[in-house]
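Possible regression after last week's pipeline update?

I re-ran a chain I had predicted before the update to compare outputs. Posting the input and the new output here so someone can diff against the archived version. Not blocking, just want to make sure nothing changed silently.
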Amino acid sequence: MSDLRELYQEVILDHNKNPRNFHKLDNANHSAEGYNPLCGDQLTVFVKTDGTTIQDLSFEGHGCAISKASASLMTSILKGKSTEDAFKLFDKFHHMVTGEMGSEPDAELGKLAVFAGVCEFPSRVKCASLAWHTLKSAISSGEQVSTEGDDL
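New output (post-update):
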């Protein structure tokens, strides 16, 4: 189990140090800003869709290692997926990080399973899910997201 935790920590640290898709997407047709005042995480998610499929996405901003790694993995995994599939994956991810999923992460989460341990640290759930809530807002409404309330 400790080898697995070390691997998870390595993946999170790698995506924090070398975030994928970390730039402004100039041809985005959706975007939203997200902010976690508790941790100071602040990011903008940029999405280009054709209406039903995520053709490209990226993010900019700053935050803790968990927040940045979550955004990096999210942008890598969701390219080419339908917005419907992205929302389903969001729900599974959110259930995992909040501990609602049980002890075994859903196989569909793939590399996102590295965040399974976040449920042991309730203050970090908002860090891990900020990018996801911001993506959902970008596609749905474009409204700013804040983790200040208890609804995330």
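Follow-up from reviewer: compared with the archived run. The mean pLDDT is 90. Marking as no regression found.
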